[in-house]
TrEMBL record:
<dbReference type="InterPro" id="IPR036914">
    <property type="entry name" value="MGS-like_dom_sf"/>
</dbReference>
<dbReference type="GO" id="GO:0005829">
    <property type="term" value="C:cytosol"/>
</dbReference>
<dbReference type="InterPro" id="IPR004363">
    <property type="entry name" value="Methylgl_synth"/>
</dbReference>
<dbReference type="GO" id="GO:0019242">
    <property type="term" value="P:methylglyoxal biosynthetic process"/>
</dbReference>
<dbReference type="GO" id="GO:0008929">
    <property type="term" value="F:methylglyoxal synthase activity"/>
</dbReference>
<dbReference type="InterPro" id="IPR018148">
    <property type="entry name" value="Methylglyoxal_synth_AS"/>
</dbReference>
<protein>
    <recommendedName>
        <fullName>Methylglyoxal synthase</fullName>
    </recommendedName>
</protein>
<keyword id="KW-0456">Lyase</keyword>
């Protein structure tokens, strides 16, 4: 597997930076998976200066961001004809107040990951959860240091879908109803929440009990309400099926939720496509048997 890797300066300019927290937790898993990492220049330099991933040949240095390093990752998410230049996704640890996080290449990296159904991992929690997910699919033993990401009975799950993706969210919830029902609580924005409740009641969920707590619709501030829960560490995992092909009148609210997730980088896991969400569910089932 090949992943792009980049981190804003906040996450690697001190010893306790998020990049190093991720690598300390997942270096063994990265090596087990033989995960190729196409790494933007400054991020690569920080890893080398910290003495991490020493001697790991699949760690490849790309140009600095100002020299087009992140742009190259975008092209590789789409897929290039040269061998070894098609990425399976990207890890981009974002500082929500760094202006470079909203440069065109940064936005395009996420958009192309969503379009192509590939993971876009913008938080430490998301990246750690993804490594454990891939370890499960590779048949490796459980990493007990990742147990907290799978303590669903203590977690709140947000289920959010743009209009064109609501059917995909309903299909996903129906397919994985038992797993999703294990969460302590589920929340959703208005219309999605209503349709999910109707699905749950049709499957025998008690009719007097909502399966999800409904917040406002997205245009009326539901994304902002969920963002507040993320910032309070009351919402631990968000499955957010985005439609990257349409303009959204409440784009600012959507970006607010995304910024909240990256602010809670060690605690919030975010999944942005049905393909990646299903792979996580399948990995969770595998993990439960080991």
């Amino acid at each position: 597997m090949l992943m792009g890797l980049a981190a804003n300066r906040l996450h690697h300019h001190t010893e306790d930076g998020a990049l190093f927290a991720f690598l300390r937790a997942c270096e063994a898993g990265i090596r087990e998976l033989r995960l190729g990492l196409h790494t933007v220049g400054r991020t690569h330099d920080a890893i080398a200066a910290a003495g991490m991933l020493q001697g790991y040949r699949p760690l490849v240095r790309y140009p600095y961001g100002r020299e087009g390093g992140l742009m190259k990752l975008v092209a590789e998410v789409v897929g290039m004809p040269e061998p070894g230049r098609t990425l399976d996704g990207a890890i981009y640890l974002i500082d929500p107040v760094d202006p470079s996080s909203i440069f065109p290449e940064a936005l395009a990296l996420k958009r192309q990951c969503v379009i192509h159904g590939k993971p876009f991992l913008s938080t430490v929690a998301s990246a750690r959860d993804w490594v454990e997910m891939e370890r499960m699919h590779a048949g490796l033993p459980v990493d007990r240091n990742a147990d907290r990401f799978h303590d669903y009975g203590a977690q709140t799950l947000a289920l959010i879908a743009h209009d064109a993706m609501k059917s995909a969210m309903l299909d996903f919830a129906a397919r994985n109803f038992e797993l999703l029902s294990r969460f302590r609580q589920r929340v959703a924005t208005g219309t999605t929440g209503q349709r999910l409740n109707e699905l749950a009641w049709a499957r025998g969920w008690p009719a007097d009990t909502p399966w999800v707590q409904r917040f406002n619709s997205g245009p009326l501030g539901g994304d902002a309400q969920i963002a507040d829960w993320v910032l309070q560490r009351r919402c631990h995992r968000a499955i957010f099926f985005e439609d990257p092909h349409v303009a959204r009148q409440h784009e600012a609210d959507i970006q607010l939720l995304e910024r909240a997730v990256t602010t809670a980088t060690h605690d919030a896991v975010c999944t942005t496509s049905p393909q990646v969400a299903q792979r996580w569910c399948d990995a969770a089932a595998l993990r439960a048997t080991r």
